[in-house]
Write a structure and sequence with these properties.
There is one protein chain. The protein folds into 2 domains: about 70 residues, no CATH class; about 220 residues, Alpha-Beta Complex (Fumarylacetoacetate hydrolase, domain 2). Helices cover about 15% and strands about 35% of the residues. The strands form 5 sheets. Strands 1, 2, 3, 4, 5, 6, 7, 8, 11, 13, 15 and 21 form a 12-stranded mixed sheet that branches. The protein has a 5-stranded mixed sheet with strand order 9-23-22-18-19, with no helix packed on it. Strand 22 and strand 23 form a beta hairpin. It is globular, with a radius of gyration of 19 Å.
């Protein structure tokens, strides 16, 4: 498996929830059980001492079926790898998405976007995982997906410079920033940005891969990884993270300016070009409805699939 690790959170058949490591052999390891309690039960606690805990966790990659704390993946249910993060900031870092989404609303590009990476806070208590159902808000008639990558903060820091930010990143995962476009359109006229149009659900998963898995794929300010979104099996969105305008380092510098970042905070990239229905246009695909299955796939980060249900 190399140096990288894939961290998950899963529910066992007895209902207990544990943080673990995904092995390539379709096995999962309960880190707490396999280490006789020396590693935490929850990933949020693991991240508090991530550098030290990673050294201990690396030994788990050598475990096999039948070892203590090892389970076949079909015997457990994967949930969001970080079910309750400390916070969730979502940036707006892909130029194509910003331009196209604004054009579709009859708006010109804003010069300020090129000066600073901007973000909003979303609801860190509404995190969903792989295969979870997403409830469409009752008052929403224009439900959309947003295809993103997220980084997870693994080390406390303040006033972090962009060229030092790599030390503070634990890993990366797929993120779907679900959006109620009609609610969002109404509220952003007030000038505070999206809130109610975003706070009902954000999906992450299926795992968090440590940053070293993507290291040799660096390209531009991002990574050369293909990002795809399908609805009911039909490919709608396809982009590449290397096209990002602001690096995660620049996002972290902005987020940490005058503010302390803590292990277990999530930072989203914003939507890759073509990565939502708002940008594609409803002539390409209607808004999401009850029964739709939305599937994201990003190289190295896996597949994140969710179904839409009525609230």
């Amino acid at each position: 498996m190399g140096d990288y690790m894939r961290f998950i959170t899963f529910e066992k058949c007895d209902g207990t929830v544990r943080a673990g490591v995904m092995l390539e052999s379709d096995l999962v390891v309960d880190m707490n059980e396999a280490t006789n309690g020396s590693l935490p039960e929850k990933l949020i606690d693991f991240l508090e001492q991530s550098e030290q805990n990673l050294i201990s966790a690396a030994q788990l990659l050598h475990l096999n079926d039948g070892d203590k704390g090892v389970y076949p993946i079909h015997e457990v249910r994967l949930i969001a790898p970080l079910p309750v993060p400390k916070s969730f900031r979502d940036f707006y870092a892909f130029e194509q998405h910003v331009k196209s989404a604004r054009e579709n609303r009859g708006l010109d590009m804003i010069p300020e976007w090129y000066k600073i990476p901007v973000f909003y806070f979303s609801n860190h208590l509404a995190i969903k995982g792989p295969e979870d159902n997403i409830s469409k808000p009752i008052e929403c008639n224009e439900l959309d997906y947003e295809l993103e990558i997220a980084c997870i903060i693994g080390k406390k820091g303040r006033n972090i410079k962009a060229d030092e930010a790599e030390d503070y990143i634990f890993g990366y995962c797929i993120l779907n920033d679900w959006s109620a476009r009609d609610l969002q359109r109404q509220e952003i006229k007030v000038g505070l940005g999206p809130a109610k149009g975003k706070d009902f659900a954000t999906s992450i998963g299926p795992w968090i891969t440590t940053k070293d898995e993507l290291e040799n794929l660096r390209s531009g300010k991002g990574f050369d990884v293909t990002m795809k979104a399908k609805v009911n099996g039909s490919l709608l969105s396809e982009g590449n993270m290397k096209d990002i305008y602001y690096s995660f380092g620049e996002m972290i510098e902005r987020a940490s300016a005058g503010v302390t970042l803590f292990p277990g905070e999530i930072i989203g990239s914003g939507t890759v070009g073509t990565g939502c229905i708002l940008e594609l246009g409803t002539e390409v695909h209607r808004w999401l409805q009850h029964g739709d299955v939305v599937e994201f796939e990003i190289d190295k980060l896996g597949v994140l699939k969710n179904s839409i249900v009525s609230d």
